[in-house]
Amino acid sequence: MASSAWLPVVVCALLMMQAVPAARAARAFFVFGDSLVDNGNNNYLVTTARADSWPYGIDTPDHRATGRFSNGKNVPDLISESLGSEPVLPYLSPELHGAKLLVGANFASAGIGILNDTGIQFANIIRISKQLTYFQQYQHRLAKLIGPDQAARVVAGSLTLITLGGNDFVNNYYLVPYSVRSREFSLPDYIKYILSEYKQVLRHIHGLGARRILVTGVGPIGCVPAELALHSLDGRCDPELQRASEAYNPQLEAMLAELNAEVGNGAGGNGPVYVGVNTRRMHDDFIDDPHAYGFASATVACCGQGPYNGIGICTMASSLCADRDQYVFWDAFHPTERANKLIAQQYVSGTTDYISPMNLSTIIKLDRHLHD
Fold first, then answer.
1. Which of the four, 174, 248, 255, 328, has the lowest number of CB atoms within 10 Å?
2. Annotated catalytic, 35?
3. CATH assignment of the domain containing 187
């Protein structure tokens, strides 16, 4: 009787032993940030910042909305593919348990920024401080699964992506004329302020064990359909918002260089911890010459309403393009899956004009010994 009582426990242990190596085949991947990288956390929150209804996800295999602000895959999904891994689950997903924890987790939440008052119009979003708290919580859960020493190795050998900053301009400083922040700070001083706050966030992520951290800059926020609808009669990008990203991105790169000097080399002592991703340059390529990349439009969103399809959110009542591959923008703010694929290619193999000081394929080669 006593020996048979142990049988379910033994079977469970054997199943876990089989499941864990399968999930461990690729390095863990962690994602922090806003709607550009959220893959469904906001589905589990009472908030207006959601992408959980059709036609979001129209080009997924089952044509259903996943919580991604895209017609299909977003950049984290495509990075997971380059790692040879399945997409990481949203941290709030009830499916994230057991061996799935070894794949990593996505903590991102649409609407957030570097600052806590960014996106205050969206209730119940996961501020970056809360995302970091969840990362700590995740590590405790992982340690219960595989032990604290192995959990620390998984995190140290992982890849991390963080995408923040755009909302601090679009949904804060420039949200309304004479916003609170624009009255408090001139643009140069505001940029210095948010970067000083961001520096603390990035230090915290490193302090929690991450050793390869991809940090994206701010894209061409003056060129998104939402801003064109508000500010442009001829399709030209809004110069003030463009000025903001032009001023911000070089200072972000300088800050990452300071952090790398501060913390030394990354995983295995090979190369930098912080890698800067020039998403502005990646998007500018499409916007400057969309036809060269096979796009018919870099100004009109595929899904939306009003000028440039840039008013409001994408819904069942929106105007919807027939061929998503012809458009740079899916909705008022976010790229199509095809644009995301071209962006992700630059992550993987781009020159230092796009990702610096090294691209993802170089990182994977350098860190291969950590996972052999």
1. 255
2. yes
3. 3.40.50
